[in-house]
Amino acid sequence: MDSDRARTARVGSLAVRDRGRGGGLRVRRGIGDVLLVLRRASGLTQGELADRVGMTQATLSRYEHDLREVDDDAAQRLADALGVTAEFLRHDFRMEGAIAADAHMRRQKTARPSDWKHVEARLNALRMHSSFVLSRVPMRPRNHVIQVDPDETSPTEAAAMLRAAWRMPIGPVRHLVRWIESAGVLVVEEDFGSARIDGMSQWAGDHALILANTARPTDRLRLTLAHELGHLVMHSGMVDRDAESQANEFGAEFLLPAAAIGPELHNLSLGKLADLKVEWGVSMQAIFERAYALGKVSAAERTTFYRQLSKRGWRTREPGSDLIPPEEPKLARSIGDGLRSTGLSESEVARLIGTQADQDTPFLARRRRLQVV
């Protein structure tokens, strides 16, 4: 691409504008936060990154705290080590806080802080990448994520409102990721390296991002996606202590609407629960808990149910999850594919995305690979 003039490409009905290497966008504000997020997402200590780029740890620390301006040479070396472009490193993301301290996370209490902090850093890095990309490739989603105040609208009402706004069919939700992505929410799946963390979500300006753990079975993944969607609907502002229970209630109604599944929640043998699991795409435990919440089963029946699961070793891994169609995010990858379709080279597309050409990114599936998530 020309280095001294802007270039505009068209992706379907999307206009993409890029200034090129010499076209400016050399905003230095917030580079410390960007360095910190990318370093943590890469799993590097300050000392390790400093060694890679040939500078002292003290110098890198000053950069991260915005106590020293990063010159062009240092910015390029840092960008190369972190797998991004120098332009990305210097980009003004214009988000409320470069680090998503208010990110929503679905995790077990036993999750190690080092694990969830790494996942949080990955979310922040992806949040920055999505902001960088979508400033160049604006989306016009068919649907949108409604916003409600949980003090005024119950999670059950919010879920029903969203289903109505999206004009979803009554009954089981097929292709949940497609519905979420239809509202412009980027869904990224990665292996977190821990089964104790299910997912995270965060608004990044006008668009949102959900990061989900591929190590979890599809039935659990779908619950996580619905849970995080609930956070995006109800908790874009201040989050109260009931946020997790509210997201759980939202997810239950969104995937298992009381009016639709209620008549089926009787005589819940393990065999019937297995059939309902395949039909509704959630775990047997989630279905039984829904029945309990709706008053369809007693506390004693609930205790018996969990004893049955424990006896069979199904509390942590139920049978039948492989019968549920996988949820495959496509929106992020379609952006890179759309850019490719305009005739841009691999390196040009990577630079628009803000990564180096040899780096894996959800926005650009490598042609020689079978799958990249």
In short:
By secondary structure, the protein is an alpha+beta fold. It has helices at residues 31-41, 46-53, 57-64, 72-82, 86-90, 113-134, 155-165, 176-181, 218-234, 243-255, 258-261, 270-280, 284-293, 299-312, 331-341, 346-353; strands at 7-11, 14-18, 104-107, 186-190, 197-204, 207-213. The strands form 2 sheets. A 4-stranded mixed beta sheet has the order 3-5-6-4, with helices on both faces. A two-stranded antiparallel sheet has the order 1-2.
Uncertain residue segments: 1-29, 95-103, 367-373
Distance between the amino and carboxyl termini: 28 Å
Strand composition percent: 5-15%
Largest sheet: 4 strands, mixed
Alpha carbon gyration radius: 22 Å
The dominant shape is elongated
Helix share, percent: 40-55%
Structure classification: alpha+beta
Strand order across the largest sheet: 3-5-6-4
| Mean pLDDT figure | 83
How many individual helices? 16
Q: How many β strands by DSSP?
A: 6
SSE pattern, N- to C-terminal? EEHHHHHEHHHEEEHHHHHHHH
3D structure, described in words:
The protein has 373 residues and is an alpha+beta fold. It is built from 16 helices and 6 strands. A 4-stranded mixed beta sheet has the order 3-5-6-4, with helices on both faces. A two-stranded antiparallel ribbon has the order 1-2. Mean pLDDT is 83; it is low at 1-29, 95-103 and 367-373.
Tell me the layout of helices and strands.
Elements: E1 7-11, E2 14-18, H1 31-41, H2 46-53, H3 57-64, H4 72-82, H5 86-90, E3 104-107, H6 113-134, H7 155-165, H8 176-181, E4 186-190, E5 197-204, E6 207-213, H9 218-234, H10 243-255, H11 258-261, H12 270-280, H13 284-293, H14 299-312, H15 331-341, H16 346-353
Parallel strand pairs: 4-6
Antiparallel strand pairs: 1-2, 3-5, 5-6
Helix pairs in contact: 1-6, 2-3, 7-10, 9-10, 13-14
